[in-house]
Amino acid sequence: MVSHAQVPVAHICGDVLRIYFGTRDARNRTVTSFIEVQPDRPGNILYVHNQPVLSLGALGAFDDSGAMPSWIVPHGSDLYLYYIGWNVGVTVPYRNALGLAISEDGGITFGRLSHGPILDRTVVDPFFIGAACVHKQADEWKMWYQSTVKWVMHDGHPEPYYHLRYAESRDGVNWERKGLVCIDFKSPEEGGITRPSVVFDGNRYLMWYSYRSGSDYRTNKANSYRIGYAESWNGVNWIRMDDQAGIDTSAEGWDSTMTAYPCVYSYGDNTYMLYNGNGCGRSGIGYAVLER
């Protein structure tokens, strides 16, 4: 854990909240580990796991440079961890795909389903796949995922443009993709929409996500990640309502430049949001509580 605590994933384990996250080593490679916290006071850290629960993939595999968590789904006695694997690129800095790892010991260790990803580049998603949120509802699995639509050169540096799409599955492994766009760019200047966190309240689907401009977003507060919000009646067709996300950057401190990669969970009577601040996780993980 040399730097970063990126893309927090919440998982309730009895009376504790386990937060999985991606952390980087001295060579900037990402593995997955976790901490355990008090669910209603996530700032109270109870335990820090000092080993990866998911390490780098095999040499030459899609995840040999990084394995970052994206979402966890209980399935029978197992836990399904959908994770972002990445390789270092040549013409572009990196290429991502979505993998699946399974835990049979309550989430202490995860074993890959295969050396290959479950979602990768296709004619539907031609560039790369990123963060995903997965719901299992009876025998139907729903996924909202980041799909990259192009790379654009800005000041001699390639930047990816991505939005959110929808897929379905019968088993959580084999996914049908039709190119259905859930959250699209709202202007030509917008360049990245990622890390969906979806909640079903019994009537509607509620989604929080992060969005940014197409360029100069890493340190420029005006262009950097913000947390957005959308609603849907069917999980496929969404209405963006970013002004109702309920959170923005702080005036100063760890999340003064960006707020990114939200993960929303409920505990007791309250709703909580884990999220990253400046540097896409370099400044760590924070949380917010929904005001009712």
Write up what this structure looks like.
The chain is mostly beta strands and 292 residues long. The chain has one domain (71-289): 5 Propeller (Tachylectin-2, Chain A). Helices cover 0% and strands 57% of the residues. The chain is built from no helices and 19 strands. The strands form five sheets. The chain has a four-stranded antiparallel β-sheet with strand order 1-2-3-4, with no helix packed on it. A four-stranded antiparallel β-sheet has the order 5-6-7-8, with no helix packed on it. The radius of gyration is 18 Å and the shape is globular. The mean pLDDT is 95.
Keywords:
292 residues; mainly beta; Tachylectin-2, Chain A; four-stranded antiparallel beta sheet; 19 strands
Summary?
The chain is mainly β. It contains no helices and 19 strands.
Number of domains: 1
Class based on secondary structure composition and strand pairing = mainly beta
- The SSE order reads EEEEEEEEEEEEEEEEEEE
Which architecture name does CATH use?
A: 5 Propeller
Q: Which bin fits the share of residues in helices?
A: under 10%
Output the radius of gyration: 18 Å
Largest sheet: 4 strands, antiparallel
Mean pLDDT: 95
Task: Indicate the overall shape.
Answer: globular
